[in-house]
């Protein structure tokens, strides 16, 4: 089960996507479907079939976004979070091999298309919660426990 949290920036992006799909893309695709349908035989009409499929995809995404935006809880930055890892934190970690990773802990709906974001539900994020700079986090992996050292924690205000 995914945690229904989101950052303010993530919420605004999802809302902007919903607005774009509903007010701009869907009306445009609807016009194309209507035009293609007016040409006659729909069974061999590629424009009709493609745009009808695209319309279904848009409607599916609009339903998902509408439902998600109602259920999500926005988590804003608080000065009390400074110095510890909480939701919305940018964290830099390092392992014994000297591999350094930097990422932000965000909600599930925000991780797509971003390689520097991880879900709050991921094993890494769960292991890092409430840690401070200099602490060691033990992350359970399929290969066994892995140790990561917290180098830095920052927040975007």
Describe the structure.
It is a single chain. The protein has about 160 residues and is of the alpha/beta class. It is about 40% helix and about 25% strand. It contains 3 helices and 7 strands. It has helices at about 10-40, 45-70, 125-130, and strands at about 5, 75, 90-95, 100-105, 115-120, 135-140, 145-155. Strands 5-4-3-7-6 form a 5-stranded mixed sheet. A two-stranded parallel ribbon has the order 1-2. A hairpin with a 5-residue loop joins strand 3 and strand 4 (about 100-105). The relative contact order is 0.16.
Quick overview:
With 157 residues, the protein is of the alpha/beta class. The chain is built from three helices and seven strands; from the N terminus they run E-H-H-E-E-E-E-H-E-E.
Question: How would you summarize the topology of this molecule?
Answer:
Blueprint (H helix, E strand, L loop, with lengths): L4 E3 H31 L7 H26 L1 E3 L13 E6 L5 E7 L10 E3 L3 H6 L7 E6 L2 E12 L2
Parallel strand pairs: 1-2, 4-5
Antiparallel strand pairs: 3-4, 3-7, 6-7
The averaged pLDDT comes out at: 92
Strand content: 25-35%
The shape, in one word, is: elongated
Low-confidence region ranges: none
Keyword list:
single chain; 157 residues; five-stranded mixed beta sheet; two-stranded parallel sheet; 3 helices; 7 strands; elongated
């Amino acid at each position: 089960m995914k945690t229904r949290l989101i950052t303010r920036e993530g919420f605004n992006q999802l809302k902007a996507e919903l607005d774009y799909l509903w007010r701009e893309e869907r009306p445009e695709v609807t016009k194309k479907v209507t035009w293609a349908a007016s040409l006659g035989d729909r069974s061999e009409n590629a424009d009709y079939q493609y745009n009808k499929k695209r319309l279904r995809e848009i409607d599916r995404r609009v339903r998902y976004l509408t439902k998600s935006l109602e259920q999500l809880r926005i988590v804003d930055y608080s000065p009390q979070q400074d110095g510890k890892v909480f939701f919305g934190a940018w964290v830099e970690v390092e392992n014994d091999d000297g591999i350094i990773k930097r990422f932000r802990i965000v909600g599930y709906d925000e991780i797509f298309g971003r390689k520097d974001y991880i879900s709050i539900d991921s094993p890494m994020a769960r292991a890092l919660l409430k840690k401070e700079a200099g602490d060691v986090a033990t992350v359970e992996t399929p290969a066994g426990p892995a140790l990561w050292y917290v180098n830095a924690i920052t927040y975007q205000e």
